[in-house]
C-alpha cells in the first residue's frame, strides 16, 4: 500500500444516520495529540450525555503510531475496533471519531453493530472528504519580462501552483513545488529558459491537496 498522508478535509464535521430505528451520530475532528483527542471525546460525551453509547477511536501519527478505541458498553469488538479499522484501512491520520448511539428498540446483533459503526464512520468520511498533506518548498523564479509569458504558460501546463507574481525590474514568480521534486523542477526550468533565470529555493510549507478515493467500510470482521 502506498503511504499517504491523508486527513479529513475539515477541521471537524458531523454526520448522522438512522439504522433500524437507532440514531447514529458521528463527530469527527483533526487532532494533533492525545490530549486534543481526549478533550474532543469528553466534550462530545458531555454534549450527548443522554445517549446509550458514545463509542470512539483515534489514530495519531503518519504511520498510526498511536491507536486507541473504546466500545463504551457495546459488546467487545463490535464498535470501537471497527471504527478504528475504518480509519486505518482508509489511511486517515491524526483524526478522532466518536459515534453516538441512541438505541431505537431494535437489536442489531454483533454483525449489525459492526456494520453500523464502521459504516457510519466510512459514510461520514466520504461526505466530508479527504485532503492529502504535501510538503512543498517555495521557489522564486526571476526572469526577464520577455520570458514571463513563456514560463507562466509552462508552469500552468505542468500544474504548478503560482503563489505570487512580483513585477519589478524583472518578474519574480513564487511557485510551490513538492520538496522531493525540487531538483527535477529546477533542471526543467533552466532547460525551458535556456539558463536565463535566477532560481532561489525558499522555505518549506505544508499544503492541503484534495484527494479523491472510495471509502471502504470493510473490517477484519466483515470481509
UniProtKB/TrEMBL annotation:
<feature type="domain" description="UPF0029">
    <location>
        <begin position="141"/>
        <end position="196"/>
    </location>
</feature>
<dbReference type="InterPro" id="IPR023582">
    <property type="entry name" value="Impact"/>
</dbReference>
<dbReference type="InterPro" id="IPR015269">
    <property type="entry name" value="UPF0029_Impact_C"/>
</dbReference>
<dbReference type="InterPro" id="IPR020568">
    <property type="entry name" value="Ribosomal_Su5_D2-typ_SF"/>
</dbReference>
<feature type="domain" description="Impact N-terminal">
    <location>
        <begin position="20"/>
        <end position="123"/>
    </location>
</feature>
<protein>
    <submittedName>
        <fullName>YvyE</fullName>
    </submittedName>
</protein>
<dbReference type="InterPro" id="IPR015796">
    <property type="entry name" value="Impact_YigZ-like"/>
</dbReference>
<dbReference type="InterPro" id="IPR036956">
    <property type="entry name" value="Impact_N_sf"/>
</dbReference>
<dbReference type="InterPro" id="IPR020569">
    <property type="entry name" value="UPF0029_Impact_CS"/>
</dbReference>
<dbReference type="Pfam" id="PF09186">
    <property type="entry name" value="DUF1949"/>
</dbReference>
<dbReference type="GO" id="GO:0005737">
    <property type="term" value="C:cytoplasm"/>
</dbReference>
<dbReference type="GO" id="GO:0006446">
    <property type="term" value="P:regulation of translational initiation"/>
</dbReference>
<dbReference type="Pfam" id="PF01205">
    <property type="entry name" value="Impact_N"/>
</dbReference>
<dbReference type="InterPro" id="IPR001498">
    <property type="entry name" value="Impact_N"/>
</dbReference>
<dbReference type="InterPro" id="IPR035647">
    <property type="entry name" value="EFG_III/V"/>
</dbReference>
<comment type="similarity">
    <text>Belongs to the IMPACT family.</text>
</comment>
Amino acid at each position: 500500500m502506498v503511504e499517504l498522508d491523508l486527513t479529513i478535509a475539515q477541521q471537524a464535521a458531523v454526520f448522522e444516520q438512522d439504522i433500524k430505528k437507532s440514531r447514529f451520530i458521528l463527530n469527527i475532528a483533526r487532532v494533533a495529540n492525545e490530549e486534543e483527542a481526549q478533550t474532543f471525546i469528553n466534550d462530545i460525551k458531555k454534549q450527548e450525555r443522554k445517549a446509550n453509547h458514545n463509542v470512539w477511536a483515534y489514530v495519531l501519527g503518519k504511520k498510526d503510531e498511536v491507536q486507541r478505541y473504546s466500545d463504551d458498553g457495546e459488546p467487545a469488538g463490535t464498535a470501537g475496533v471497527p471504527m478504528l479499522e475504518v480509519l486505518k484501512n482508509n489511511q486517515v491520520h491524526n483524526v478522532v471519531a466518536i459515534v453516538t448511539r441512541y438505541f431505537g428498540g431494535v437489536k442489531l446483533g454483533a454483525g449489525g453493530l459492526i456494520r453500523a459503526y464502521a459504516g457510519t464512520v466510512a459514510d461520514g468520511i466520504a461526505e466530508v472528504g479527504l485532503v492529502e498533506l504535501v510538503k512543498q518548498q517555495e521557489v522564486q523564479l526571476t526572469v526577464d519580462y520577455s520570458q514571463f509569458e513563456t514560463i507562466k504558460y509552462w508552469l500552468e501546463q505542468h500544474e504548478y501552483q503560482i503563489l505570487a507574481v512580483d513585477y519589478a525590474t524583472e518578474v519574480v514568480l513564487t511557485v510551490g513545488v513538492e520538496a522531493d521534486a525540487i531538483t527535477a523542477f529546477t533542471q526543467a526550468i533552466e532547460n525551458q529558459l535556456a539558463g536565463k533565470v535566477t532560481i532561489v529555493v525558499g522555505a518549506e510549507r505544508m499544503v492541503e491537496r484534495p484527494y479523491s478515493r472510495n471509502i471502504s467500510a470493510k473490517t477484519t470482521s466483515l470481509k
